[in-house]
Amino acid sequence: MPALDHLNPIDLPLPLAHWFAAQGWAPHRHQLQMYRATDDALLIAPTGGGKTLAGFLPALAAACCDAMTSGLHTLYVSPLKALTHDIARNLARPVADLELGLRIEDRTGDTGAGQRARQRVDPPHILLTTPESLALMLSYPEASRIFAGLRRVVIDEIHALAESKRGDQLMLALSRLRTLSHGLQVAGLSATVENPARLARLIGGADVIHADPGPAPDIAMLPVTEPPPWSGAGGAYAARDVMQAISDARLALVFINTRAQAELFFQALWAVNDANLPIALHHGSLARDQRRKVEAAMAAGELRAVVATGSLDLGLDWGDVDLVLQIGAPKNIKRLVQRIGRANHRYDTPSRARIVPANRFEVLECVAALQAVEAGELDGDDNAGQGGRDVLCQHLMLLACAGPLDADAVFAEITRVGPYADLSRVEFDACLDFVATGGYALKAYDRWQRLVERDGLWHLRDPRAARDIRMNIGTIVAPERLSVRRGPRGGAPLGEIEESFAASLLPGDTFLIGGQTVRYDRLRDMVVEVTPQPAREPKIAVFNGLKMATSTELSTRVLKLIGDRGAWGALPAHIREWLALQAEISHLPRPGTMTCESFLRAERWYFALYSFAGRNANQTLGLLLTHRMEAADMAPLGFVATDYALLIWSLEPVLDAAALLDAAGLRDGFQEWLAENAVMKRTFRAVATVAGLIQRNLPGQRKSGKQATFSSDILYDTLRKYDPDHLLLQITRAEAMRGLADFGRIEEMLRSRSEIVHSIARHVTPFAAPLLLEAGRIPIRASGSERLLEQEAARMMKEAGLTLNGLGATTEG
Amino acid sequence: MSTYRFQFHGQELVARPSGALYWPAQEALVVADMHLGKSGRIARLGGALLPPFESIATLERLNVDLMDSGARRLICLGDSFDDDTARTELGAAEVQLRALCKRHEVIWVSGNHDPAHRGVLGECVDELQISGLALRHIAGVAPDISGHYHPKLRFMGQRRRAFLLGAAHLILPAFGVYTGGLDHDDPAVRHLVPEGIAIVTGKHAHAIPLSPVLQARQ
């Protein structure tokens, strides 16, 4: 522990200092530095460093000195709802022990309407909230009164918000708070990051305070009794080994990448839980009450392990966790280090984490990641782009809901926060024009007028529109979800599944939710009704998983590892054998070459390219190569890009890989292909939803009348044809390009790696097997899919021919 | 582009990939549910400010079908306008529509969205009887040709606008650009066309049998 010498805890009011002493805690140096900071400050500390408490010291101190006036003093914003509950619980103790007259409340999507209304009239001293709920509060006419006396804003886990639309949204909210309250002080709290100065710029500049990073974490692969399978992501093969590790630990967190995987893995663990240890499941698709129960049981020390997804991922401060188990390769090193910070939050002992690769390819990734951690290499941060202009559009609408807005003042306000510091006035005015009139080239009609300008201020034309606007806020565009309930009417809620998954179910099908197998009975009023059916083998739940990008650094490390037989000593024997098999059936990728292979499987030709160039580059290559394949009548049907490889499937085989990969003329006629692609259409859907062109489908609002809603693709196509320079198309293009590598760089890469090793394999190869299960497939809707549809239609018509006598039909060309 | 030719109660009809129906014996093109002026109606009611191009886009599509099929006559099966006010708010598309009505004989069947657009741009009727077939907005006494439901077919991972052709009814897909749709197995259309074929639209018109199996699976 660092010496505290000149930073004596006596800085704190006596009752608070005594309370610390009574708990056997000495404030850390960085906590006191944060307490004494007079300007905006950013604290970089590992988990367990008492970051959050540091943020609240001023409020606690003021309350100790009876210096607390009525009204809001400290606003705490966290990316996770669960975190706000946790903080409320932690703060309750000192407040109760010291008998402080502090009111602490949270406000999230889960907060009841009554409480929310009361908070607008009579806000608590400390309010714990999320970016979405804060944005909503700012849209109420009472906002200026609620926030006028605000002293301090604490932004927790700010590293998780940076580089995202939620971060943009929060920074815009912050810019408004700075206008509403003078002398506002901001405290940003972040886990270890590569570039703290960039995070500081995000909040518009701040003093950076570094905590002692503590001892290096203890991370290794979990020894397993059986080798992992060639492909798959579930990790079930290692259930017994994981159970053993759990029983050897006090409290273990088991992280797995997707909700469906969490369900399946929990099931596998339960099957080998011979000692009946109390273990639980926690993920974002579970009903709220169920999540709360698990959180409380964990806080009360009643559990030995929790299987969780990202919903628990961000810094929940649960003291007794002494082991983190990661199932499946963590997709980047930074994430791994931040994640295991949770283990053993005693600051001065190393965190312990064990990784369980789900398949053999992931073993390679794990070995490379561990070597990188040992070398002290964090992944580089991506370049901070400009804040999303779609988020700005939403912000302007919310401000207009709160009251008339002054364009000059708002422009000055938002350019004070990092993401919008470089926004030009022209770009700002285009956003305002979109919000006010839709921003179309055709400007003939006064009906297209949401905001009207009077006396230099922009007013909502119809104040009743505020309700709809508020209901559509948020920057996360998620697939539609349906709630799952037991029994016919009003049964217990079990969680949620995606609408597309629900649509694939037939009555009698079984799937896993909340760790139990249930039978699908029917869909009624947007509720999926099910009956528990413990004995049946479930049809696998495929509701969505997050696709995380690995860093380019990690990809390069993996390629080096594969290509260098001298380094194979670091690999388990079964991996060396597996690599040898890949070399025998096809080829092993080597640095400096482009290794690719073709094989036939279930009437589709697959072309796998092992570039190890990162996901963005592979995604771009996928678009460029399918374009060339379409032109060459190979009828591509789709592709999927990972950090290592690109897999394209088509009706005709790639026989000449060198011609396909020839950099010359790769871009000819490409723009049209790109614009038609699913990548662009998906991006447009998200942009148009955030910017408010498409209304979100809200629960209860879409019982029937499906004729009324139409696909966002139609709007995209219409704009492309009639208003190609429209703001939302500009934003869509800019955003899609962020997920793609620069075309010039791709051509350069193809030229520099001109040695192309292509093999036609007899069947699926060891390396290609995991690619076949990869999420994030991009369909190609072109001649191939049309051909398939035609064939299938003809086959079915032939089969049904006899029954369709009365409808004799012919096709004409 | 390929069309699909079929028989319905003794009449030879052609389903076009656009979702329009051509009736050679009548030299008539039949379309349903154009919903012209939809973006304007939504904006007028304080909803989203959708791109105001759908009327122009829909009429351009319609012109292409009229030219390619060589039709002399146009029959619109209702919900041609998104509401009766929309008829007067077409803006730039008004010129297009007038020109079209000068070149072709137009019969407007009224729909639930546009019940009262009487006396404008051609003949307005509640329904028509031609060669033993009724033409109306919502399917009624068989045999008839109608629209209203905006049928779509879910097939091979796609969802496309489709004609539904059964023994009693022929239901047209929506022709308007800004229209969604109802799946072919929705109870509302399934009881009208429990068996028969769907003709999916898109680049080409393809027929696909509506077998009970397909109905249940999708």
Q: Could you characterize the architecture of this molecule?
A:
- The complex is a heterodimer of chains A (813) and B (218).
- Chain A is built from 30 helices and 27 strands.
- Chain A is an alpha/beta fold and 813 residues long.
- Chain A folds into four domains: 202 residues, Rossmann fold; 157 residues, Rossmann fold (3-Layer(aba) Sandwich); 52 residues, no CATH class; 194 residues, no CATH class.
- In chain A, the strands form five sheets. Chain A has a seven-stranded parallel β-sheet with strand order 3-4-2-5-6-1-7, with helices on both faces.
- The radius of gyration of chain A is 28 Å and the shape is globular.
- Chain B has a single domain, classed as Purple Acid Phosphatase, chain A, domain 2, CATH 3.60.21.
- Chain B is globular and about 45 Å long.
- The interface between A and B is large, with 57 and 58 residues.
- Strand 27 of chain A pairs antiparallel with strand 1 of chain B.
In short:
The complex is a heterodimer of chains A (about 800) and B (about 220). With about 800 residues, chain A is an alpha/beta fold.
Look up the CATH topology of the largest domain in chain A.
Answer: Rossmann fold
- The number of helical runs of chain B is 5
As an assembly, this protein is heterodimer
At the first level of CATH, what is the class of the largest domain in chain A? Alpha Beta
Give the helix proportion of chain B (percent range). Answer: 10-25%
The tally of strands of chain B reads 16
Beta percentage of chain A is 15-25%
Sequence stretches where pLDDT stays below 50 over 5 or more residues of chain A: 1-7, 541-549, 698-707, 802-813
Shape of chain B: globular
- Count of extended strands of chain A: 27
**Biggest interface, CB < 8 A:** A-B, 57 and 58 residues
Instruction: Walk across the major sheet of chain A and give the strand order.
Output: 3-4-2-5-6-1-7
> What name does CATH use for the topology of chain B?
Purple Acid Phosphatase, chain A, domain 2
CATH architecture of the largest domain in chain A: 3-Layer(aba) Sandwich
Order of helices and strands of chain B: EEEEHHEHEEEEEEEEEHEEH
- Residues in β-strands, percent of chain B: 25-35%
* CATH architecture type of chain B: 4-Layer Sandwich
Total count of domains of chain B: 1
Q: Compute the separation of the termini of chain B in Å.
A: 27 Å
Shape of chain A: globular
How many structural domains are formed by the residues of chain A?
A: 4
